[in-house]
Amino acid sequence: MMAAVIEQPATGGFAFRLSRNRGRIVLGVLIAWLVLWLVTRGMGTLPLGPSQLTDLHRGLNHVNDSIGANRDSSWIFLYFFNEIRLFVDQFVVFIQSLIAQPSYGRPVPVIGWLGVVALVTFVSYAVANIRVALLAGVGFFFLGLQGLWRESMDTLALTLAAVIISLVIGIPLGIWAGLSNRFNRLITPVLDFMQIMPSFVYLAPLTLIFLIGPASATIATLIFAAPPVIRLTAHGIRSAPHDTVEASESLGSTKVQTLTKVLLPAAKRTIVLGVNQTIMAALAMVTIAALIDAPGLGKTVVKALQTLDVGTAFNAGLAIVVMAIVLDRVTTAAATRGRRRPHRTVLLVVGAATLFAIWLSYTYVWAADFSDDLNIGPTIAQATGDATNWVQTTLSPVTNGIKDVFTSVLIDPLQALLAESPWWLIAAVVVVISVVIGSVRAAIVSAVCLGLLVVSGLWQDSMTTLASTLVATVFTMIIGVVVGVWMGRSYHADRIIRPVLDAAQTMPAFVYLVPFLALFAASRFTAIAAAVVYAAPVAVKIVADGIHGVSGTTVEAAVSAGSSTWQTITKVQLPMSVRALTLATNQGLIYVLSMVVVGGLVGAGALGYDVVAGFSQGELYGKGLAAGIAIVLLGVMLDRLTQAAANRTGRGVAT
Amino acid sequence: MRILGITLVAALALAGCSGAKVGDSSGGGGSGASCGTFNLAVNPWVGYEANAAVISYLAEKNLGCKVTKKDLKEEVSWQGFGTGEVDAVVENWGHDDLRKKYIDDQKTGVAAGSTGVKGQIGWYVPPWLAAAHPDILDWNNLNKYADQFKTSESGGQGQLLDGDPSFVTNDEALIKNLKLNFKVVYGGSETALIQAFKQAEEQKKWLIGYFYSPQWLLSEVKLQKVKLPAYTAGCDADPEKIACDYPDYDLDKIVSKKFADAGGPAYQLVKKFQWTNDDQNLVARYIAEDKLSDEQAAKKWVDANPDKVKSWLPTT
Q1: Residue B71's beta-bridge partner residues?
Q2: Alpha carbons A22 and B117: distance in angstroms, whole number
Q3: Which residues of A touch B7 (CB under 8 A)?
Q4: In this structure, which of A75, A414, B216, B249 has its CB flanked by the most CB atoms within 10 Å?
Q5: CA torsion, points A519, A523, A528, A533, in degrees to nearest 10?
Q6: Which residue in the set A292, A513, A525 is minimally distant from B72, CB to CB?
Q7: In this structure, are strands B224-225 and B109-125 parallel, antiparallel, or unpaired?
């Protein structure tokens, strides 16, 4: 799924035209569903109360318990997991002692703030350009101004450790998946699992296997963060130009030579983009890892929210956003830089200055500890706290009304249709639609996923979650298309909106959920709103990219032929970026699903709540795990279906 | 570019000539050789944080321990007893499931006595509602008001807002067995509950929900408890048939077996530690509302209560 992010809508073509027949069949199926729903409503809905368990759930509990009971005797712990834990622990502690924690008998880390700021600036300059380097330097200095230097460095240390390990494991796996179709087929579902499975499900078992400490936090982060780099590396290798590869082979190059001399250089840009996505994903785990004692900014957020201190939580969230934007811009610039390298002498001079700054920060207190006199954190916290209060009290009467209307017009009917239909009816509808708009393969995947949902014992919860997911995806796409078209057409709009999108993606959800709770109460609507905030940026970016990729001459031709702006957009730009639109829908869905658990924390109930409760209560662990798997099943089903539909549309255009 | 680099170096060189050096005044760690490291779990609510703040303050200042606080959820903390990562949990709300698993079956944890704090779970309404309709505080009258509690989530019935999934709730059974025209809506987090009650009081909105005391919010918004049929021993034996109030919880401390067997000074402190709901609320308020750090809050309370503190510390 991720792999497709950078695919350009190369096949342009004419229309997102569902063949008329297929459209009719889908409509017919939906009408038949509605009619049957009226008759069979409430039959075979397979409900299960929040505290009820099935045998499967109890069985999963036993598995979990037996891991705990055997951890001291089993050889796999003694010789395998313990070694991994030791290695990861030491690696993280080493980075922490360099930049974050007092170390080697000193009251401060080896490199103080000045050294880190200088180093970050220098590295950014060396791999990218001067503008990005300045942004990086100012950004990191700002972390100190926020009064969060040490927390930020702890977060950076953990993120770096997780990212480095992800790359060391991920790039070779990605290359393998790029070269071998069989391995690719094998690893894709595993990656899906790693990305969609809610981390709440594996946090507790991880601490059992790798103990409480940096190792568990790092491994939890890397489970979520490694897939993008694997997918994008594979994708980069696969999309290397065919003729070049063939030419290299016909010249008698060995496989290794072809790989290192042709494939890897051709895939470099894509791989760096994968590194970028992996960094972003790692930063998204900061708050969650704080629940198992990961040091850093996540703890500040979690602590502040215990007392509803939105201001302080926002300040820490802002630090995460700043760090994310810096790392994003540096890696993106590194990926897209042309041949112009920084001048060697300049690089040497700046390098010497950096070394000097590091030495200063090693030696002098002022350069090691960020001065408290410059702390503007409390001011930021105070201002956002006040602003939030104002918004909450002023707007909530109106917003609650909006929520009520939306819920009764949109969410309730859809949920009634999905959660109150018999399971076999829904299964039949989904399988038929999969065949019609997708492929036979997609239909088989759908059938298997639906069957497993029944086995999970959480059918009705799954349907409730599916209803909210679909509503959230529709809103995500509306925003995605509107804002994406705007950004794709206007360079200035792009420059202004993009940082906002980055912020929405990396700001920990709970920071904005507190005001959301005040505005919309604990409800499914709040959960949907949160999901849209997180998912819309991805959709917007992909759509903007697609619109941007439509060739300028085509647009000019349309304009000179007398098309209005509206006509240019609807008749030329949107149809020509149909691949981007389907991709945006696919990614939007996956991102919405990744917020199901967060939704469970603010009133969505259903699968999200099951997972949260499973994390909190031992007896419900098995049910939480089953709910996590159910979310993965929904994700795989929707992903394969939208991909099959996209491929079909692509083919339709080509012929 | 080159000019920039040179200026930068010059500026740094100038700045570098002054200032204190790292290590000039070595802080010097306390030397309490007998205590060693004390791993204290900190569960995510303010009341717990208050207990942990005072205990770790005393362990560090008076016993010379090196206290490592670990921010963890309950289940993960108890798991830590077995792996040696956690020595003590200092506010436990019942958790019979965890007791059975870790104290009875795995024998990695042991109880270390009451904290002296009484925990209460129940149904609460905001103070304005209790003042405007005093009879709402009796469950018998709840059906009369069910319509007022309707929300977009409760499907035509009154909404009973449940919250934190960490605690066991009997609310679905209660509603059924007391024949109330209500539906449990799962808020899903303590944050959602606190925000709901705070707003209900500020904007005079109708709200009834699951809540508990002690909790820092109660010092800001005095939520009123709704009377349910009284708890009698065994009335909650069959989860399906519960029709009585929640029992009072004696919040206690659990420590790892190794920690207890070693019997060091930190263990003695945890074992003797006992205070009251008022004490905890005070420290919790220092933390939640006065925004003191854990250490400042603990110091403030410890300095004001030397007698209590003395009884927890070894007599020297």
Answers
A1: B42
A2: 67
A3: none
A4: B216
A5: 30
A6: A292
A7: antiparallel
User: How many C-beta atoms surround the C-beta of residue B17 within 10 A?
Assistant: 7
Instruction: Give the integer Cα–Cα distance in Å for B90 and B111.
Output: 10
Kindly state the tokens that stand for B275. Answer: 């205070």
DSSP letters for A12-45: --S-----HHHHHHHHHHHHHHHHHHHHHTTTT-
Closest to A606 measured CA to CA, from A583, A587, A624: A624
Q: Is B29 on the interface with A (CB under 8 A)?
A: no
**Are the CB atoms for A321 and A380 separated by under 8 Å?**
no
A73 touches chain B (CB under 8 A): no
Q: Which of A403, A409, A453, A460 is nearest to A431 (CA)?
A: A453
pLDDT for B26 beyond 70: no
Contact at CB, A603 and B83, closer than 8 angstroms: no
Name residue A207's amino acid: T
Nearest to B189 by CA among A462, A287, A400, A377: A287
Per the listing, tokens 């925000």 go with: B195
pLDDT tens digits along A225-277: 999 899 889 988 887 777 777 788 788 778 788 888 888 888 887 888 888 88
pLDDT(B304) > 90:
yes
Taking the Cβ of residue A365 and every Cβ of chain B, the question of whether any pair is shorter than 8 Å is answered with yes
Q: Do A306 and B27 touch (CB under 8 A)?
A: no
Longest dimension (CA), chain A: 80
Residues with Cβ within 8 Å of residue B104, at least 6 apart in sequence:
none
Distance CA A366, CA B21 (A): 8
Please check whether residue B167 is in contact with residue B212, taking contact to mean a CB–CB distance below 8 angstroms.
Answer: yes
- Phi/psi for A394 (5° steps) reads -75, -40
Q: Output the CA–CA distances (angstroms, integers) from residue A500 to A365, A491, A593, in the order listed.
A: 36, 15, 22
The model's pTM is: 0.86
CA dihedral B8, B13, B17, B20 (to 10 degrees): 60
Q: What values do phi and psi take at A53, rounded to 5?
A: -125, 155
Question: Helices A578-593 and A181-196 meet at what angle, rounded to 10?
Answer: 50
What number is the ipTM of this complex? 0.82
- Which DSSP helix (H) or strand (E) runs through A163? helix A149-179
Say which of A65, A291, A364 has its CB closest to residue B21.
A364
Interchain CB contact of B70 with A (< 8 Å): yes
Give CA angle at B159 (B155, B161), nearest 5°. Answer: 130
Contact present, A450 and A637 (Cβ < 8 Å)? yes
Residues B248-274: pLDDT tens digits? Answer: 889 999 999 999 998 889 999 999 999
Asked if residue A500 lies in contact with residue A616, where contact means CB atoms within 8 angstroms, the answer is no
Chain A residues closer than 8 Å to B187 by CB? 522, 602-603
- Euclidean distance between CA atoms B255 and B277, whole angstroms: 21
What is the rounded distance in angstroms from the CA atom of residue A601 to the CA atom of residue A594? 13
Report the C-alpha gap between B56 and B41 in whole angstroms: 11
Integer Cα distance of A157 and A596 in angstroms: 29
- Determine the residue type at B295: E
The pair of three-digit structure tokens given for residue A549, joined into one six-digit string: 């990729």
A562 touching chain B per CB within 8 A: no
Preferred mutation among A134, A308, A615, A620 to probe B, highest tally of B CBs within 10 A:
A308
Phi, psi of B32 (to 5 degrees): -110, 80
d(CA B34, CA A612) in angstroms, rounded, equals 41
Nearest residue of B to residue A612 by CA position? B165
Please name every residue paired with B42 in a beta bridge, in sequence order, or none if there are none. B71
The whole-angstrom separation of Cα B240 and Cα B221 is 33
